[in-house]
Amino acid sequence: MNFCSQCGARVSLKVPAGDALPRFVCDACATIHYQNPKLIVGCIPEWEDRILLCRRAIEPRRGLWTLPAGFMENGETTMAGAARETLEEANARVNVMQLFAVYNIPHISQVYVLFRARLLDLDYSAGEESLEVRLFTEHEVPWDEIAFATVRNTLTHYFDDRRLGHFGMHVGTIETPSRATAR
Amino acid sequence: MNFCSQCGARVSLKVPAGDALPRFVCDACATIHYQNPKLIVGCIPEWEDRILLCRRAIEPRRGLWTLPAGFMENGETTMAGAARETLEEANARVNVMQLFAVYNIPHISQVYVLFRARLLDLDYSAGEESLEVRLFTEHEVPWDEIAFATVRNTLTHYFDDRRLGHFGMHVGTIETPSRATAR
Fold first, then answer.
1. Confidence check: pLDDT of B183 > 70
2. Average pLDDT for residues B68-73, to the nearest whole number?
């Protein structure tokens, strides 16, 4: 950030009065420009014993498989955002059911919020950001071609919970791109 | 938003190619400035059968009672943010335990993420944004002087769950300032 989005003057990085962290503050109008983590919302779309994955048509991790998920928009709920992303990436209509996982990724200031969802029909297809969309049983999941640690952890917990007959809530932190922990 | 924070030129509201929503786009350098919902993280700090509330020293709702909570910062986890806000607003040290509530407030593009937390000692006091900090049993809670619908809903679920002997996960949506629904 170099310029004030309100008045167009230069900004400086400084700690405002009463604050503890440096912020971009406008040299002219004194507006403080806070920068905050972003929410990624998405679904685990279920159809009988299978779940829907999307093969990414965009970077990062083009060609690898992921759950339908993306940046939450202003004015929507986490559930509405998860359904919208599933429609956009997989042309799939879902009934969003249960909050299943919340993952912190502090090194990129993101929080993933993922829901279990029921596919309403089999009329899905690849959206603009997907190369391919497919239903997978647990044993068909391409574990070596999963795009993100959040998705790998979520799927592992999902199938573990399903075997136990009870879906829990999973909160975890992805510490670095190469090391993932979850509880 | 009037000016590009990257180059200082004017921005226009337009739908970028491949997008579905209008965004602020720089007329000069074409940077797209996305605006996304903000996360509010906080705690229900517990001490035996009591919970800690803060009386707000700042607007909105100055003088009313709330749970310690505030905007999540870049680079931290939801749990770390919840503990930090509790330290800032109540000078209280907590062990963050269990994710308890996620509330959507779409009309102001906020998502509340609240955790159960255990107070580590009784050495708490009002932080800069609080007039007063106090422990309350269920029957002492000032129900008519609670600052926000999110806090009222969270406390109601909390005491209900405690009576049942099992703390669940609560996902809800605050539709308007005057009408609250939760499940």
1. no
2. 98
